[in-house]
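Handout, section 4.2: multi-component inputs.
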Amino acid sequence: MSVKHGLLALLVEGPRYGYELKSGFEARTGATWPLNVGQVYSALARLERDQLVAKDGSDDEGHELYRITPRGLREVQDWWEAAVEREAPVRDELAIKLALAVGTPGVDARDVVQRQRTATLRALQAHTRRKASLVAGDTAAALVLDALVFAAEAEVRWLDHCEARLVRSRNGVSR
Amino acid sequence: MSLPLALPVLELRAAARVHGAGATAVEALRGVDLQVAAGELVAVMGPSGSGKSTLLTLAGGLDTATSGEVLVEGVPLSGLDRAGLAQLRRRSVGYVFQELNLLPALTAAENVALPLELDGVRARDARLRALRALDELELSSLADRFPDDLSGGEQQRVAIARALVGERRLVLADEPTGALDSITGESVLALLRQRVDAGAAVVLVTHEARHAGWADRVVFLRDGRVVDEARAEVLA
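Output:
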């Protein structure tokens, strides 16, 4: 997850200090990916090193403010315009686990599928409940929760598909 | 969460259904135990042919268990004759299917009033109760419209009002969002959830995990048996 671009996008709206960025990021994304303030400051240090942000004095309460630089603005603009990279597959623990389960003596891959499906559905139930409890009009949070719901649904469908494939291969049908 | 002493609205005890006999017999459901309490939404998932629809038809008294027992509000269905079953279906059980839920020649209010009228409630009373049911679901504005003038989502919402009109507390829903787009489908599920939170018991057959996400419990069927169950964490 690009904390860097998330912070830059928030700084477009005006100078902010670290804790303000942390709470702004969480509020805007439905508190789905909590940040600790240490992560925010180390990201800010890297952004400053790369001249994407600069220190901008401090507010009345002494908080050190950061502002976005022209270079930072161009970086955010490029981020909005580019698609998120999807081609290089991230290492997926579940896919690796299932692949290894097939053919490992003493491990029933169908049981692995079933246990995962139950766990993923439980997560899906939790996302759905959070979504149902959102106040009307909180579109940003609903979008983020939708992303989690659809990802979990896709995983369940993939697991259904794995199960069907495992049954077929057990019955001696290839492909 | 239901209290242990509360009577389940629906209970299956080792319910089994065999179609045919001898070598060609097909065991559609093999000894399923299931309890659904008031205020509970249970989703049933499983591959095609796993017994989901059979479970729903047994629960609604549309078909009879070969062995085991099905109880609705504590009444064993095996003890009811045909007239008794028909009365139970009218008074205790509401259905929502994927499509063909409403009679096209009747308005939304008339569709909702129909089960009451069939049960002997006078037309005026039935209409008043239908209007109240529509009002509870914030559908009053649709009362005098015909199904053809309603969107798919509106039709399903009216079907939910009809499923819950009168004293009925058990709704059996079979892929109720099948023909709807994702946002409209979600609003139908949200409405079902709202009725559950108000005390209804719902069994939802679905192949979409996203919809099962609205349930308190998800029961998986495979080859006519319950193979697993996912229970939502109780939120503090």
